[in-house]
C-alpha cells in the first residue's frame, strides 16, 4: 500500500480524481465503486467539473454500490445512495442501467448480496474502488473482526459506526445493520484508493500504518493489495 500525503484536503481530492480520470480514459467501460460520506465529496466534485469540460466521460462506465444502511434507499436523505445520486449520478445524468446498488429495503438481503456478487462477476473485476477508513478502522461496513474471505454480506454494525453514522442524518436514526461488499472484492479490484482526511483520523491512520494485517483493523487488508494507495492530507498524517 503506497502512502501519499498531500498538503490539504483539496489537493488530496484533486489528485485522487486525476487517478480516476486516468483509469477511465484508459478503460472507458470501467467498473467503478465509490464510497459515500464526507471524504469523497471533493473528489466527486472535481470529477463532475472535469466531465463537464470533456476531460473524462463516464457514460460507458458501470457503477456498483459499496454499502448501505439496511432499511434505506436513494430516497432516504443520509443514505449512501442518496449521497452518490446527489453528488454524482444525477449531476452527470448517468444512465440508471449502468448503476447497481444493494436494495437495502428488500426482504431477502442475502439475495441482494448474491445479485451484487453476480453483477461484479459479469462486469468486473472492479477497476477502481474508492474507500474511506472508519474511526474504528472499518472498510465500507466491514467491521473489526470480520472475515477477509467474505464477498457481499449483511453485517451487524459496531457501536462506533452507529454513533459516527448519525452525522449523515438531520435527526437521530436507529442504525443496526448494514449491507456491504466484502474485503475479498477489494483485493480483487485493479486499483484501490483509501482516502483519509482530517485530524480526527490521525490516530487510526497511525494504527493502520503500524499494525500488521489483522481483522481487528480491517483497513490493514489493503497492505496485501499490489495496487493500493493510502491518500492522506497533512492533518490525517500529522503524527506519522
Describe the structure.
With 240 residues, the protein is of the alpha/beta class. It is 32% helix and 18% strand. The strands form 2 sheets. The chain has a 7-stranded parallel beta sheet with strand order 1-10-9-6-2-3-5, sandwiched between helices. Strands 4-8-7 form a 3-stranded antiparallel beta sheet, with helices on one face. Helix 2 links the parallel strand 2 and strand 3. The radius of gyration is 16 Å and the shape is globular. The model has no long low-confidence stretch (mean pLDDT 96).
How are the elements arranged and paired?
Blueprint: E1 2-6, H1 9-26, E2 31-34, H2 41-52, E3 62-64, E4 67-69, H3 80-89, E5 99-100, H4 109-123, E6 128-132, E7 153-156, H5 159-164, E8 177-180, H6 183-188, E9 191-196, H7 202-210, E10 228-233
Parallel strand pairs: 1-10, 2-3, 2-6, 3-5, 6-9, 9-10
Antiparallel strand pairs: 4-8, 7-8
Helix pairs in contact: 1-2
Amino acid at each position: 500500500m503506497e502512502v501519499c500525503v498531500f498538503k490539504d484536503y483539496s489537493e488530496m481530492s484533486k489528485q485522487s480524481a486525476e487517478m480516476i480520470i486516468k483509469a477511465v480514459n484508459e478503460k472507458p467501460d470501467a467498473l467503478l465503486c465509490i464510497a459515500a460520506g464526507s471524504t469523497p465529496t471533493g473528489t466527486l466534485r472535481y470529477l463532475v467539473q472535469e466531465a463537464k469540460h470533456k476531460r473524462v466521460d463516464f457514460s460507458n462506465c458501470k457503477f456498483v454500490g459499496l454499502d448501505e444502511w439496511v432499511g434505506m434507499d436513494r430516497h432516504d436523505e443520509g443514505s449512501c445512495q442518496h449521497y452518490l445520486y446527489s453528488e454524482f449520478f444525477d449531476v452527470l445524468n448517468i444512465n440508471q442501467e449502468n448503476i447497481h446498488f444493494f436494495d437495502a429495503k428488500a426482504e431477502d438481503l442475502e439475495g441482494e448480496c448474491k445479485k451484487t456478487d453476480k453483477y461484479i462477476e459479469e462486469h468486473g473485476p472492479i477497476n477502481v474502488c474508492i474507500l474511506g477508513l472508519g474511526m474504528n478502522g472499518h472498510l465500507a461496513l466491514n467491521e473489526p473482526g470480520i472475515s477477509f474471505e467474505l464477498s457481499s454480506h449483511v453485517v451487524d454494525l459496531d457501536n462506533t459506526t452507529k454513533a459516527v453514522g448519525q452525522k449523515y442524518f438531520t435527526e437521530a436514526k436507529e442504525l443496526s445493520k448494514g449491507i456491504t461488499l466484502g474485503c475479498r472484492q477489494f483485493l480483487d479490484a485493479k486499483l484501490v484508493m483509501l482516502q483519509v482526511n482530517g485530524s480526527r483520523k490521525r490516530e487510526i491512520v497511525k494504527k493502520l500504518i503500524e499494525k500488521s494485517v489483522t481483522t481487528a483493523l480491517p483497513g490493514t487488508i489493503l497492505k496485501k493489495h499490489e495496487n493500493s494507495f493510502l491518500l492522506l492530507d497533512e492533518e490525517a498524517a500529522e503524527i506519522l
